[in-house]
Structures
1.
Amino acid sequence: MNKFGKVQKQFIRCDSSESSSRILEQLKNKSLLRIRGNEASVFLQGLITNDMKHFEEGAANLYALFLNIKGRVMCDVIIYKSQEDNVYYVECDSQVAEPLQKHLKMYRIRRKIDIDQLGDEINVWVFFDPTQYMNNKHNDNNKQKLEGLIFPCGTLNNKVSKIVENIMIYEDPRLPDLGIRILAASTIERQVIIKHLNSNVVDSINNLNYKAFRYKLGVPEGIEDLPPGKALPLEVNCDYLHGVSFHKGCYIGQELTARTYHTGVVRKRLMPLLFNEIPNKSVSYDDKIVNESGNAIGKFRGIESQYGLGLMRIIESLNAQSLTVSDIKLKVSKPMMESIASTSMDKTRIEHSQGLTSAVQDSKEIVTGVFKCSYCSLEERFDFKGIKAPFSRQLSYTEECYIMKDPFSLPNKGEVLVLGADCNFCKKTVCLECSIYFGKRFCLKCASSNVQNLPSQLHSKIKNLIKEKDS
């Protein structure tokens, strides 16, 4: 058995016919931790934003965040399942490898788990094709799609990997456009890796490296983009990147993310920035990005070549006539995460969000009553049914839902709890735990009957929820 264990039965194919050339780049700022033990999966389940049960469903790797107790991002990771039983590799920024190891050991308590830094034993490589995004076009249509949309949890169909000669090859779990992640023993040369990729490999295309390519897509990564203790998971597009589960149960720091999902909207997002030319002066983290009126509508996060990232107020930034940071002109666009809108149900969700304004005006609002779920014993008084409750801090929802004032919040703070909604098919009242939301609300029975119209990421989730309800 080699360093990575048994050889996987399935293989990734990178045919040269798919692209004229691709870039193979070593990520020298990445390190690996190895976590092994019979309780390794359960241990990680209580610490990360994603669901370790995806591995039981066949996933080869997954993207996740570690949060601090205040719900802010401590670091982002990619977790790989080894072919050895109960062994996982955790890829993280090299600068947080030691703090993350200490964090894990603090919560290990008496579990029989080994947590080791692999140091320079294994190198992390990335293999990607940037050519499809070389035109720099910015789509300004449907400017309000992003605000208020929190995407359903789930992972991509990343169930394929290849392990040969101490080289472990995986699809990136965040986006197909990010290409392939490679873990290789440090003794293995670049040319040996290229031999197994079966594709034309170059060092760079138009001086575009991996960091600039990430920024062009709007994807943050590592301590430079996500300083520990500052970012919020949904604001850094964790849901777009299939890195958060809203159904898995408790984990460290989950309260704020869960509350945002159930009761609020996301008005700020990390968004790609494009500079007309490479700036000739430095721009600092948190520098204000202002519009033509001089109003601050975002904060600068990072730059590579002419591409950057900014934490932006979505509506204001997309409606701005001009944007500048430190007197340097720039443009902003929506994150290029098109794989999210690849199914017919995604189209339904987008069309539904486009009609939000008129729906607010036309909805039949009901004030006070008793909410009763048709599938479980939940029965609770609600204070409002509709899209926009007058007491909910100007929040608007993408469906007519049953809303109650949060009994645990301070008076007049506008904090609310969403109890549920009516199923879009059978019109029965259903709570959040007995339903699936994907553009519209569906009870588990209707979701199961129409599962062929839902993306594959939700199939296992629906089956598991039905199994839980039946047990």
2.
Amino acid sequence: MFRHRARFSLLLCLVLAILLTANQTRSGSEKGSERPVKETIKGEIVRNETHVEPVPVESSLAKNADDDDDGDDDDDDDAVPRHLPDDGDTKILTTPKSVVAPDADPSVKTILIWTSFDRAKMWWYGFRHEFGHEVFRRHNCTHTNCNLIYDRSKLNEADFLMFYHEDPPEWPKIRYTWQSYIHIIKERPGPWHRWLKDYEPRINITMNYRYDSDIRFFNNGFHKRRNPLRNPYTAKWSLSRKGKSVVGMISHCGADSKRDDYVAELSKHIDVDIYGSCGTMECPRGRDGTKQCMDRFQKQYKFYLSFENAFCKDYVTEKLYRTLSYELVPIVLGAANYSRDAPPHSVIDVRDFDSPKALAGYLKHLSRNEDEYNSYFAWKQWYVLFNDQDCYCTVCDALNEPAVANKKAGGYYDWWFSGCDNDVIDRMKEKGGWL
């Protein structure tokens, strides 16, 4: 009896030992195959110590877009840029740059030109198809800690991405939270830019013609001569040889600025010739054709209509600076501050006159007084024009300003469009009585 009980106890111990071993093995197996912590918020963030899966744009990580009034000014490098739209195309990654680009120099600001464009367009936007870190030294920039690249495969190295399109850009498929987007545009706002309303939450830094943009971008301007001319500037084409009064080249009819209305009224009081689609006379097409006409104009005409197509804050184009390079007195219509944007006493601003009739009276006065007329060319002794801004230094200097480099996204659309007021001519009509 005792032997049977001993055998039963031994058998029971063996069974318990086998069960215990099996349970430990299963527990260890489950622990070894345990999935990383998974958090799902209308999308999925999958994390472990070495890998971060892409996170869709719309997630609770972006909630700081609407909770930004807490008075906390501390910068959060892992914060998702404000108001990123959920278009299903761009995924936001929170992986630090030190992980995705461990060899990158943290003191260097890497700028990736994302938009595809040709060499000619690079010149148009102020770059000379030169890339790398040393280019900023060659251009004698104040700040040289920038690196310009044009290789999309190096997206993970870029602190800043530049977009040049005036249409919705082709956005990258991923975006790191420490990256900022720069939008560059030369043209004034119009209906064709309505796409910005939806995509402005992506854009951190503005770069355009306005003086209050984050980075001011301009191709034309003037500065003092290093060595002024020894003698006052003497006009090559005397006033007495110019038999015609006013000329302009306009091919965009019905512009927002209502310049056509002003030209029509001005024509009632002084002779005005309009070349292009909006007039009755033609110039050869292309840059060479324009130059041929301008060469002829300065010999025949006294004044040139440098009329912008819109009244937008700080918006002034080559229409002005091209005219200034000839012996023609520009008559300007626009919302620029011409006392700042043009050489001293070099232009005639229509806003200084109550009506086109009053302007015509002043133009006739100048036409009879050669010294007064030639005084509009006196600036040429002291100043010189330029037409190719060096964007390398402009960009690098701006990105070394913390207020620019760390700017949050949002507000671009309303800021840009609010700068235009195309009812100026209508108010001039009411005030001057030429309705």
3.
Amino acid sequence: MGTRILLIGRLPSALLRPLCTKGTASHSSSSRYSAVILQRSFDLQLEQRHSVHYLFPPMPALNCPRMLCSKALTELEFDDLAENTLTSIGDYLDGFTEWLPVDADFDISYAMGVLTIKLGGGRGTYVINKQSPNKQLWLSSPVSGPKRYDYIHGQWVYGHDGVALHDLLNEEFRKLFETDRIDFNQNRDD
């Protein structure tokens, strides 16, 4: 049986599911090329039916958050950056008791890559931890919920909204403690 070749070029934008968040990729590049999800689907068909081959146009590097790093981090670089970030956030929070009225049950603990921040007074608990396999920092916030941060251009950034970890902490802690004096960026060490 002969081999059939199906060429896939420009696909209607209705068939494409955006892989990048708004503002991280040009609209024309996502509508001009087949999406990775569709490519995987066709590749699966190729594996199941060896007589059909699918050819795709070369896909440009989309500006997806995981691809924005200036370079791929090694495990050692990630561990150093994550450790420095978590330590500097913990150190900054430890100083809160000196200049900010906090409840008696306010507590900061850091162990084995997990920073736990118990705010007390019904404000909730934050957890920030290293995820070495993904080279991410994960945040659990009582205000905004869970988020995963990638190290992009010198800061930890949440790919879905482009907000840096330190900026989110500033916004939420300022609201929770009703002061503009909180600034996690002044103590950044990442």
4.
Amino acid sequence: MVSEVPCPRRHRESESIHEATKAKQNGIDRSDVECMSQIRDTIDKGPRGLWKVTKWARNRDQESASSNIPTLKGDRGPAETNQEKVDLLR
């Protein structure tokens, strides 16, 4: 029976992938902590700060949705608003 010899190259690649994944997660964690800190500071300013955070949370998906579809070129010119894009695609 032949025993398998571990490949040092594969081990190094595995370690580097693990390190890159760990570094990425650490960056995400730092970003989350900073964001929560900013939200907490805004809320601590009083009721007005709480309303600002509420408004941001309510509107954050709407802002990103409009930027997902780029301006479309149609027969009647460029479609820039969401309604124009819908009409063009129908």
